[in-house]
Amino acid sequence: MNRDFQPFEIFTKPETSVSIWLNGEPGAIQKEAENIWNSSKYRVATDGAINEITKRHESVEWPHAICGDFDSIDKKIDLKGAKIIHLPDQDHTDLTKTIEWCLEQKNEKLWSFDRITVLGGLNGRFDHTMSTLSTLVRFVQNETPVVVLDSFNLVFSLPEGESKIHVDLKKTTKMCGIIPIVQKETIVTSNGLKYEMDCLPLAFGELISSSNEVVTNEIRLKSTAPLIFTIEIMMSHAQPTARRLLSSAIHYDLIVIGGGSGGLSCSKRAAELGAKVALIDAVEPTPNGYAWGIGGTCANVGCIPKKLMHQAALVGKELKQAEKYGWNGLDQSKITHDWNSLSQVVNDRVKGNNWVYRVQLRDKGIKYYNAFAEFVEGGQIMITTADKKKTETLLSSPNILIATGLRPRYPDIPGALLGITSDDLFTLKTVPGKTLVVGAGYVALECAGFLAGLNQDVEVLVRSRPLKEFDQDCVHFVMEQLKSSGVKVREAVEVEKVEESGDKKKVYFTKNGGVEEYDTVIWAAGRAPRMERMKLENIGVKRNEKSGKILADEFDKTSVHGIYAVGDIVEGRPELTPLAIQSGKLLADRLFSDSKQTVRFHGIATTVFTPLELSTVGLTEEEAKKKYGEDGIEVFHSHYTPFEYIVPQNKDGEFCYVKAICLRDETQKVVGLHFVGPNAAEVMQGYAVAFRVGISISDLQLTVAIHPCSSEEFIKLQVTKRSGKDPRVQGCCG
Ligand code: FAD
């Protein structure tokens, strides 16, 4: 921050500054303001100011740039070569947007200036004045000082019942100041949220020179005595209500907290439907200091980097098999894998995604705040920027969406922080080496699978059953394939503690499980909400006591009116990106169009991207038996060898398996489909559509298959488990 700058310099050195002429007839009607405008290095007008500037064409210079949505501008006016900057939705935030645009010019070295002087913005409508103040608050820590110059009333608020303005004289030279140049005989105070005018005589000159506490009704006006006091001072002394007023909450039709799958989809859809949307997203860094950009878990530390690593491992396998198809020159002993190249590719891809999201938000006119959100009393949201400046801004909206997702859990044991989680894994700078993956859910097994495929020595610690919620026949084959690809499985123990041992991690297991050294320990035993920062207690949104997740109904409504929740943060919802996306989109439709559509939770397909993928939709055999009884269902299944495995004699063919579960009544309705094999996700997507609509086993059997492919194995299913017949597929073309 340029602490040497004195706001008075705007009178003496305008030639190094940008002047922004803000709407209508501001303090710029004063001769001083016109002089400043004319001598400024750059002149920027908001579209609302153009008519006024045009009227005064004889005494004021034409602006270099005009910012706005150009709704209110007189179409006949010749804009005379000024740069036209389209800023959508001009209202409370027009000044902020215009200042941001000027700062962008500076950052991109297109313009060079020392400060920004805003002409006007402090007289006229109360909410406009508050908006100007809140803009100043936002830029108070900015490198480039922003000063507002105006005449007439300075509007500011005092806490209810207060009549004293406290000014710390030592702080009065901060650069972010307000200078009412010809102060009229009134100062506006406000009580609580009500706006009341009180005319109080005021002598600012005395205020600065004699006392640091001013009793407002004793002050006398002295015209042209400049007052310089900072927003910082006002903020630090004001009571919460007044503080809120001073910050003049920026109002949106929808505020979305969390820029992951759910939050992005909801905000984009709402903006398409014409809503004014703010999206707030920031990432709490991992204990290793890693943080990422907008896009949430999926784009940064979830589905996308995971799938890239999964693919990298599959490519390695293909390389090993290529010779069988006649590819020469692949000396297997020379093929190695470079972890850093892969993690760089992942990093580049993630950064690319972040950029795309930001562009999309900008194109749709969504205000993106890289900030943390916190609920304050009264249901408004205070955001604090994620950068070092920690700038606070108050937002308000009748519709607030919480889509803050989950973060990996660290165990509560000594040395837990010596391990990492999936949040750190994909961009790890050093090759993981000998790795212990703790957990038996899909994240753990997927990580173990691709790490083994990338030639790492991997062990998985499975405390109880792996992939508990999946069909257990299928899980058996997935686990067997993992073992056959070199993944060791340590069962029925837990980690007691971790110690540092040189650059290794010494892991102590429970139940006399011994001690083992690893290069990397990955905790992948569940994910949990991190809600402390949000201060939900300030508004009373109800959560599940055990999981900490938010309780929401089928319309995504929480226990508090106007506050909604979607995605992983909602209790009882499958933790999947497409579900979060659809929930967000449908919520926006319900809020901003006449839609009543809600998400249908039946028949959501999902895939575990282990080396041999497992994809599934509907009930597992275990669930179907529980629901319909053993005699109520028929299970069709088969072991098959994918066509592409035959020539290279890929032994993974031993673990490929397909299962369809249907009702044992006249409907023969299919209630579950399960597939273990290559490209399982691709196979299952189409079946999931059919499943959602409703199909019988004969619908499958009577469909003419696509041949040759693995997907046709569903169509070819004939053998039931009950028959006890051999479910292995023999032959291939007839
Ligand atoms: P998130 O995407 O997690 O986004 C929440 C955002 O809110 C984050 O950016 C967070 O930093 C931000 N936030 C939190 N608190 C605040 C606050 N107070 N202020 C501002 N911002 C805040 N799903 C699939 O469908 N397929 C897969 O293959 C798949 N693979 C996965 C692999 C891994 C390793 C992991 C961890 C997850 C995977 N998932 C997968 C799950 C998927 O990533 C999530 O279901 C999805 O991202 C949830 O979206 P969301 O919008 O609920 O939350």
UniProtKB/TrEMBL annotation:
Cofactor: FAD
Molecular function terms from GO: ATP binding; flavin adenine dinucleotide binding; glutathione-disulfide reductase (NADPH) activity; kinase activity; thiamine binding; thiamine diphosphokinase activity; thioredoxin-disulfide reductase (NADPH) activity
Residue ranges annotated for the Thiamin pyrophosphokinase thiamin-binding domain, each copy included: 161-227
GO biological process: cell redox homeostasis; cellular response to oxidative stress; glutathione metabolic process; thiamine diphosphate biosynthetic process; thiamine metabolic process
Coiled coil: none
Gene Ontology, cellular component aspect: cytosol; mitochondrion
Presence of the UniProt keyword ATP-binding in the record: yes
Keywords linked to the UniProt accession: ATP-binding, Disulfide bond, FAD, Flavoprotein, Kinase, NADP, Nucleotide-binding, Oxidoreductase, Redox-active center, Transferase
Transmembrane segments: none
Recorded family membership: Belongs to the class-I pyridine nucleotide-disulfide oxidoreductase family.
Protein's UniProt name: Thiamin pyrophosphokinase thiamin-binding domain-containing protein
Organism listed in the record: Caenorhabditis latens
